[in-house]
Amino acid sequence: MNDLFLEMKARGQEQVLRFWDELSPPEREELARQIRSVDWETVSLWSHPEDLSGKGEISPIEGLSVAQIGARRAEFTAVGERAIREGKVAAVLLAGGQGTRLGSNAPKGTFDIGITRPVYIFGRLIANLLDVTERCGAYVPLLVMTSEKNDAETRAFFEAHGRFGYPSEYLRFFCQDMVPSVDFGGKLLLEGKGRLALSPNGNAGWYSSLMRSGLMKEFPETEWYNVFAVDNVLQRIADPAFIGATILSGCKSGAKVVSKAAPEERVGVLCLDDGLPTVIEYYELTDSMAHARGEGGELLYRYGVILNYLFDARRLKEVAAARIPVHVVKKKVPFVDETGALVSPGRENAYKFETLILDMISLMGSCLPFEVEREREFAPVKNRTGTDSVDSARELLLKNGVEL
Ligand code: UTP
Q: What is the set of domains in the chain, with CATH numbers?
């Protein structure tokens, strides 16, 4: 214990042990465990955030359009289905987020988007995956990334619903790593007297967390990971045409994209940065780039990403040691003050540290943009109402013939 005090003092973080005397032995043990797993290098970034704006020369990227895919669909599908049957594809469901915009504390996948009957987000995703596995006659390992905050609830939900018909041999859960939040002076915050204020380390945390889990030893044939977000209820998972096209392209990654609805649309855009694939955020795109058009009148920077990627497993292993940029973001983080009272701040009070999956695309070295029809494959549930909301997703589900 003394060591812990000394170390925290040396780091200027004694406040985390402020309530030590009030804690029970198991609470002390847990707090000590949390402190020992702090990644201090990441935490230190609060005072000198990496410059993530250092872009090189940005240029448009060539991709496969809906029409081009249509013309070669049978060929792509055959290659993708073969890869699935040979056990080369695993699906990774990113469900470690906190879904703060939806305003519920429950895991986002447990949200019921139904109208006349329960239609859970997790259930919808599994139904979409089953479409593929039934056609292929082979299951795809489905690896669900949770966080410490929602792991137990997520697993229990799947069990309570019979895993939505997915076989247990092919369903696994792993927890993503957590990082602490700090106040604007770099001090670690407590969310309880014996608990650091921790949050998931961002969706690029999936690979290192999956490797740490040791799960992949069970699926050694995996050559491709199809990584996707929990909140797109029209998501096509392990889409054979997407897999086949990416394999045939020779690219080390693939990204499902939709054509932007308008130059100003707020969506990350896939492009090249000094020849390497990258995703630039809508606010990084200059006005002239956003409006630039090719000879056929199409937007040059039109490929909006929808968080459905394929990653080559071998390449991931090669770049595993590379450091994924850490984004330092201001957030409202509830904390316990010096009197032990829980404070819910009205405005941003802390830095969180997040890695983003889109930063992994550059590390892969090459990426195939694979365009899909927005109306058929993109219905994200981010907000309660308005854009990308429960309402808009319901409308799209109904249009696609899903009974709600
Ligand atoms: P979002 O960026 O929409 O974040 O995640 P979020 O936490 O779900 O929602 P808000 O912003 O708080 O409202 C995109 C995808 O990445 C996953 C989410 O679960 C979602 O599938 N994610 C995000 C993680 O798995 N871990 C994280 O640390 C962050």
A: 37-399 (3.90.550.10)
